[in-house]
Amino acid sequence: MIRNYIVTAFRNLVRHRAFAFINISGLAVGIASCIILFLVVKYEMSYDRFIPGNEHIYHVVTRIARPENTHDHAGAPVPALDALRTDFPQITTGALQDHSGGQVTVLGKDPNKPSEKKYIEGQGLMFADPQFFSVFPFEWISGSPALLNEPNVVALTEDMAIKYFGNWKEAIGQYILLDNVLTLKVTGILKNVPVNTSFPLSVVPSLITSKNNPELYGYENDWGNLSSSFQIFMRLPENIDAATVDKQLEAFSRKHYSNSSIPTKTNRLQPLTDIHYNAAVDHFGDHTVNKGTLWTLSLVGVFIILMACINFVNMSTAQAINRSKEIGIRKVLGGRRRNLFGQIMGETAVIVFISIILGLALAALCLPYVKYVATISEDLSIFNGQVMLFSLLLGLIVTLLAGFYPALVVSGFKPLLALKNKFSSASVGGVSLRRVLVVTQFTISQALIIGTIVAITQMNAIKSADIGFNKDAVLVLNATNDSLIQSRQKAFKASLLSNPDIKMVSFSSDVPASDNNWSNNFAFDHKDDETFSLFLKFADHDYFKTYGIGFLAGHGYPDSDTINGIVVNETLLKKLGITDASSVIGKDLRIGGRPWKPILGVVKDFRTGSMRDNMVPLAIAPWKEVYASTGIKMSGNNIKTSTTFVQGKWNEFFPEYANTSAFMDERIADFYCQEDQLALLYKIFAGIAIFISCLGLYGLVSFMAIQRTREVGIRKTLGASVTQIVILFSKEFTLLVIIAFVLAAPLAWLFMNKWLQNFSYKIEVGAGIFGIAILVSMAIAWMTVGYKSVQAALANPVKSLRNE
Amino acid sequence: MIKITNLEKVYRTEEVETIALNKLSLEVKQGEFVAVMGPSGCGKSTLLNILGLLDDADTGSFVFNGIEVVNFNERKRADLRKHNIGFVFQSFNLIDELTVFENVELPLIYTGVKAAERKKKVDEVLNKVQIMHRRNHYPQQLSGGQQQRVAVARAVVNEPKLILADEPTGNLDSSNGNEVMQMLTELNEQGTTIVMVTHSEHDARYSHRIIRMLDGQTVLQNIMV
Q1: Cβ separation B74–A337 shorter than 8 A
Q2: What pTM value is reported for the model?
Q3: Are A416 and B54 within 8 A, CB to CB?
Q4: Torsion angle of alpha carbons B146, B147, B152, B155, nearest 10°?
Q5: Is B1 in the A-facing interface, judged by CB distances under 8 Å?
Q6: Is the ipTM of this complex over 0.85?
């Protein structure tokens, strides 16, 4: 019997090729999308889960409570490490200090031999103590964590050892030079850390090395100092729960922090499994993902597969009309409802099976492109057990969803009516059901169309928005910063300016817009410290001209190596309640505990971060010791040769130092990487949704064309023109698309408005966007319906009437 | 074998009430060959459908092989049908997606006959109707006469006690029509009861008895000699 079903199923597929194509392609695209979304979501959910006992690992954060807000800072004060070990002896506590961006020079076997092999390590350069590896049992191939008790030693991951020395076995005992200052001996090799971790260790010097060089690495033994680069982790024994430790940490914080002042600080535990998903707390990983986004993606997957199933139901019930004779005969010959139900389910299973094979192939083809849309590991593959299991499960669910209703309808045919082809539309689920299904599909796709237009408009608006400074043709070099570099900066600048294509050069702690947020407490006009923090940038006097930052009042400061005057921004004045910018010129400002210095100028607000971030109160002052960025404004001609010229000069002046260089506009574009990905994601899924709903619409119009063959025949006999028939069909669909629009518009508006709240600079979601959406959907619907209705209209009426 | 008493069937639409069968009574004995004749709309197809358990009556009694079947549900009717009744239609009603062999095999599948035995039985009956050489063809590839032979083969493969034929020669030319009538006669001679609806006096002459119907009632019975 099964064989008979499968044979019939295949012959039916071949016989009704067009229907089969629509069904299978819709399902295959839906299944491929689901598989890819599954991979992406699963990958994101896998972060840090591979670490043995991850549920017992916690990150010690510092909760900072101010009158206006409370937030969790990722760092903990350096002395807290020893204090925690003393106060919580039963818990294993380890620390990690991030020094990513530092320079590594590969020395080799002889520590005194100079080397040209130098790298800026952008990620994974972190000091660690031996206990860190008790908390995180990362595997060592050579050596052991105990080696990190020594100063001036370093452990490398296998990949790093190969990068530096060609072979990890030969790396042991060789030397590297850190930031041109510290010679470190390689004593251990770590197994490569998986990519799905918030702890992408690569070069791991011992923490005691940093402790012994506090001035170099900011290892300040001070309870008042917090940096997100110094983080503490705990592994709780099985019998101790986090809530208990949190309680004890409150007492611990009262004991150690001088909490008499504002803000108050309390240490708390953040579960390891929260780190990758919590954007509010910094971490060392390459990105954070919101769990909400993952849910949205899963939901999109569900929607798409649902749309594909809706199509299937639509098409197969419509097709059932053509098959009623077959069903009738089977019933007359003694086929029970059960048999026919099984037959239709079997046919569905065959189609779903083919679609899964195609879907898997499609997903495998698309996977290499997924990395443009989502942050996933390069070596993620479709062909693993979990994906296969998921596909199987998906197949089962889709078969049930798509097959159940048609099977129920078809197997319920009255044999006599079926034999005589006497079907009213009601007996196969009716046009009204189909209308509901098509409206559902179009609601989803129009919501996605609106979402896409909003996302694209917003991203374009951001990219063309006035950021308050000039980002064009400014090359930025980043390097480490030490006295040697500082001593040669002036000469380097003069030599660069000898090139007529280079207009300005400025050294600074930071470019105008970045994700740095160096801030401090401050006081204004000899009053007490304000309750909010002041954000800081240190730069030489040419900073304002190099980046085209305009003044509202006053002027910049004269050339100086130390703070001789301060420039502030508009937002600071607003926060202080001052309206007249010129009134603050000459008044004094105190940053942290430093001496009072006069305000010399007020600049117009410019974006210090991305358009997501609010404007912050800002102070800019000269302070040579912290200049790590070089901004080079070019004329815009011969950019390429100028860039080569700059690198040549760098190598001439700073042969011991590597740098990373990028143009300012590229750096700013990087801010919106996630949003660009999201916009692309919208485009793709809107495309898929439109594709699937067009298939659905085509199915509906085909069904109606069959249903109304006789009506069309009679109308034509009575003199209706082709145009009139086409209008007859289109009227109906136009109405459906409008109903779907009425449903989709408010939904999309709500959702996208919520998304826009992420930006401090945002577009208005106006009528225009909705207008475009409805026009686009209408055009697509008409194109889909047009072909089939023209076909129906052109049919010979004699033929269609004779069929009756 | 068949005994119906006071059978009534009324088709209702919103405004119109059509009486298809009006207190009809009828008996068909085992081994009989009965032809039902009458003008269009007299109720002969309705009668055939009720006899074939494809449709049910509103009131009255229908005893099949000594069992009252008027109140049978669909499942019971399907069971009774597949074991006892074979159908031959005017428009053949073969399944286009199945080959000749598979079409004839279908009733055996539904009655749960094992594959090897099915093959034996189908081959046997295909030989009998002389269509063996086309066993792997599809219905569209056959002539009308051949298609009806396949339909007859399918009707008898399960060795039913009763064959219901609805204008079996209606779509055939006279020589093919005679061939089919010949086949039915042979089946009858081997003991199968046949009830046939027809418009053709010629075909009716093959039967033992002609029942003439008008307005849902039997008006005349001719016994053939």
Answers
A1: yes
A2: 0.76
A3: yes
A4: 150
A5: no
A6: no
